[in-house]
Amino acid sequence: MKIVMLDGATLPVPLPALPGCTDWQVREQTAEDAIVSALKDATVAITNKVPLRAATLEQLPALRFICVAATGYDCIDLDACRARGIVVSNVPGYSTQSVSEGVIAAIFALRRQLPDYASTTRAAWPEAQHFCLHRQPIQDIGGATLGIVGKGDIGQAVAKLAQALGMKVQYAERKGSTTLRDGYVSFEQMLASSDIISLHCPLSEQTRQMIDREALSKMKPQALLINTARGGLIHEADLAMALQQGQIGGAALDVLSSEPPAVDNPLLQPGLANLLLTPHIAWASQSGVHNLIEGITANLTAFRHGQPINVVS
Questions:
Q1: Radius of gyration, CA atoms only, the chain
Q2: Dihedral, CA atoms, 182, 186, 187, 191, nearest 10 degrees?
Q3: Is position 125 within any domain?
């Protein structure tokens, strides 16, 4: 069984070879025009973000299993995999603790104005007239309303941590839905009533750019937007304009629509001081990385034994 990982450099530690597997290759990265040659005669492909679409899969007759080294699997053409009898598994839940804590950290950073104070204190404090230096208004976390879009494992973990801090939590119904599930508020009500909005839903044609100019206009003037899910959930030019004009209070983004982003991405422009931007690392605590590698190994082992687990297609 030939196993090839297409983007091993996305892991901060090496992926250990599957015990007993003699044909094992971990490539640091694979360009799209090199995928077919990289997977020639491979039975198993491991990919984090390298896309495997129908046109590519048609040229890989030996491929029988795809292990996505992540929870999200929007880089895989599931319909094409089903048609070709290719099993696809992901690694669910490995980053729940890491990402949920990252969301709470972002809330503290923005509500407490930590980036601004940390970046200006060394120069500004010696010039202050009093023992403390008031630059930006500081808001409490307790009592704030958190709107969560997506009630999966991570969304629920964020809710649990937020409630422990005294926050009020509400889950948003799907955008455009005409029905309201028990325990949910409408998407529009969530936008209008939340002090913080955190995105935890998959990227699909229904959710793509769900946060656009119209949605941003319905948010509170001091509301915060947090995205640790997929960058494509947000219309980036609209968000950049909203931040620039002070339409919302700020944003914390761990993901962008293209990664790495183009240098002209509107959210990379200078002057967006109310934007906290990190390079897709909310998942990457030491426990998150350990859980991911354990999950990949478990998926490969189960497939080799003819009993695949965590199957999404």
A1: 22
A2: -120
A3: yes
Domain count, the chain: 2
Q: Is 53 a catalytic residue?
A: no
Angle at 239 between CA 233 and CA 245, to 5 degrees: 165
198: CATH:
3.40.50.720
Active site residue 230: yes
- Find the catalytic residue in 27, 208, 280, 304: 280
Asked if 301 and 208 sit in the same domain, the reply is: no
Question: pLDDT tens across 45-69, in order?
Answer: 999 999 999 999 999 999 999 999 9
pLDDT in tens, 261-288: 999 999 999 888 899 999 999 999 999 9
List, for residues 100-144, the tens digit of each pLDDT value: 999 999 999 999 999 999 988 999 999 999 999 888 899 999 999
Claim to verify: residue 139 and residue 80 sit in the same structural domain = no
Q: Is 200 a catalytic residue?
A: no
Q: Domain of residue 82: give its range.
A: 3-94+287-305
310 in any annotated domain: no
Report the C-alpha gap between 218 and 228 in whole angstroms. 21
Q: Which residue in the list 58, 259, 290, 294 is annotated as catalytic?
A: 259
Which strand ranges, in their side-by-side order, compose the sheet holding 145-149? Answer: 184-185, 168-172, 145-149, 196-199, 224-227, 250-253, 275-277
Residues 88 and 100 in one domain: no
Catalytic annotation, pick one of 174, 230, 235, 236: 230
Residues 191 and 56 in one domain: no
Q: End-to-end alpha-carbon separation of the chain, Å?
A: 20
